[in-house]
Design brief:
By secondary structure, this protein is an alpha/beta fold. The chain has 2 domains: 135 residues, Rossmann fold; 157 residues, Aspartate/ornithine carbamoyltransferase (Rossmann fold), CATH 3.40.50. Helix content is 42%, strand content 14%. The protein has 13 helices and 9 strands. β6, α8 and β7 form a beta-alpha-beta unit. The chain is globular, with a radius of gyration of 19 Å. The two termini are 17 Å apart. Bound molecules: phosphoric acid mono(formamide)ester and norvaline.
């Protein structure tokens, strides 16, 4: 089996993602069937940035399938400075079975994947957050599957055109979801990325006005205005994003059935109000839970080449 990586959502095709959703559902509803499926496998997790959800869900996930994890902070390995990324990749390939890395630059993931003989998973870079997008779209798929498919489901992203937004744009092409993105001027996602996703079959629309953007939304998604690494811009961004808060006033322009999504951590009072985050419409903790099941399915697929046990 050729090794497979998950550097970007695009590393999966439509059929694989669809099978992965079915497997994720099994992982979620029948976890007892998967307790030994990765027995003896070891994951090394590298984190250049902070994390709660990603760290716990990957570490707990591999252990729930009979494997082990080794957690490496940047304090331990000083990625790219103590030794080159390509050497770290080739060392880890001799000792463990899969690498999961949260990094600043997407090029670090690319270099790691190019030099590792084992699968490499992108656990967030400045450019993308593909594991988040898989869990998010699984959450919506699971939510609608009794009545319909994700085709024609309207997902609106309000906020910064950042890594989380980029991965939603990419995954739109694999799921059939209609994605509308609304950002302040100067914070739009890369137009070439949107164009490429449309070329791949996605329905992705840009709408500057957040009130118009949510008008036919089935789900409204937001994320922090200043991502990890952008802390110095936080004050400026608070001003620039002031009209893009997901609050009761904005929800007044949305259908009453629209659910609220956030990858977390949330900055209450900035991109989302406490009331909206805590409201019954919020599915943020379902998203967070599904990180676990989605990543278990992803690790199982990358390590075995199978989407069925
Ligand atoms: N959503 C997410 O990736 O959370 P963490 O940064 O806590 O891992
Ligand atoms: N856009 C955020 C996502 C955190 C999960 C960040 O990169 O900090």
């Amino acid at each position: 089996m050729n090794k497979r990586d998950f550097r970007l959502v695009d590393d999966l095709n439509k059929d694989e993602l669809s099978s992965l959703f079915e497997l994720t559902l099994q992982m979620k509803t029948q976890p007892e069937r998967f307790t030994t499926c990765l027995a003896g496998k070891t994951m090394a997790m590298i984190n250049e940035k902070q994390s709660l959800r990603t760290k716990v869900t990957f570490e707990a996930g591999i252990q729930q399938m009979g494997g082990f994890s080794v957690y490496l902070t940047n304090h331990d390995i000083n990625l790219g400075k103590r030794e080159p990324v390509k050497d770290i990749a080739r060392n880890l390939s001799r000792w463990v079975d899969i690498i999961v890395a949260r990094v600043y630059q997407q090029s670090t993931i690319t270099e790691m994947a190019d030099y590792a003989d084992i699968p490499v998973i992108n656990a967030l870079s400045d450019a993308d957050h593909p594991c988040q997008a898989v869990a998010d779209l699984f959450t919506l798929w699971d939510f609608v599957r009794q009545h319909k498919s994700l085709n024609h489901f309207n997902l609106t992203y309000v906020g910064d055109g950042n890594n989380v937004c980029n991965s939603l744009i990419r995954i739109a092409a694999l799921t059939g979801v209609n994605l509308t993105v609304s950002t302040p001027a100067g914070y739009e996602p890369d137009s070439a990325l949107m164009e490429r996703s449309r070329d791949n079959g996605a329905s992705v629309t840009y709408e500057r006005d957040p009130q118009k953007a949510v008008a036919s939304a089935d789900a409204i998604y937001t994320d922090v205005w200043a991502s990890m690494g952008q802390e110095k811009e936080a004050e400026q961004r608070k001003q620039d994003f002031a009209n893009y808060q997901v609050n009761d006033a904005l929800l007044g322009f949305a259908p009453s059935h629209a659910v609220i999504m956030h990858c977390l951590p949330a900055h209450r009072g900035e991109e989302i109000t406490d009331e909206v985050l805590e409201s019954p419409r919020s599915i943020v903790f379902e998203q967070a839970e599904n990180r676990l099941h989605g990543q278990k399915a992803l690790m199982y697929f990358l390590l075995t080449g199978k989407t069925k046990i």
